[in-house]
Design brief:
The protein is mainly β. The chain is about 10% helix and about 40% strand. It has one domain: Galactose-binding domain-like (Jelly Rolls, Sandwich), CATH 2.60.120.260. The strands form 2 sheets. Strands 1, 3, 4, 7, 10, 11 and 13 form a 7-stranded antiparallel sheet that branches. Strands 2, 5, 6, 8, 9 and 12 form a 6-stranded antiparallel sheet that branches. The longest helix has 16 residues, at about 5-20. The protein binds calcium ion. Calcium ion binds near residues 92 and 193. Keywords: Signal.
Amino acid sequence: MTRTALTFAGAIATTAALAAPAHAGVLTKSATGCDDPVLSQPFKAWLDNSSYKPVQNGNFEAGDAGWTLTGGAKVVDGNASQHVGGAADSRSLLLPAGSSATSAPVCVGLNEPTLRYFARKNSGLLSTLLVQVQVQLELGVWVTLPVGVDLGGAWHPSLPSLVVANLLPLLPPDMTAVRFKFSPLLGGAWQIDDVYVDPRVSH
Ligand SMILES: [Ca+2]
């Protein structure tokens, strides 16, 4: 286990003791896409040859299906300008100040999978976009941990964000389910699109 993993494991243990159960329910393999994900290389143009799979409706072309939205977050016209998911894609997610968007559970490996997405800051000079991962430690007990922060700009690919999910495996073999939560900080409005996860250690 790496030093980073050990640090996070300590944080998880502390957080778990304080966390209240947020959602109950058993995650099934079929619901979380553990089996034979369709992989692609959407960040190859940015010298990232890792293979990623999309988060369920991570391109928002199916509206808000699969996402839990709060505070006025909504799907709007206009795609990330890079169009890595397809030239005809035409929608993205608007995150006004005070809003949040949480993905459907996605199946990942236990050894540092990677999250990447596209983002644009629409307003808020000092605003950043907070990205968190929610991990199910045991039945009904979810904890939320930071994954990264985006600082803004025009449509751009996020930096690769390591997701430390080396927790109790619920889904064999050595897979677990996580959700990703996006929320603007300090009053700005953001858009996100084309949310992918590298479910394995391929880099
Ligand atoms: Ca889209």
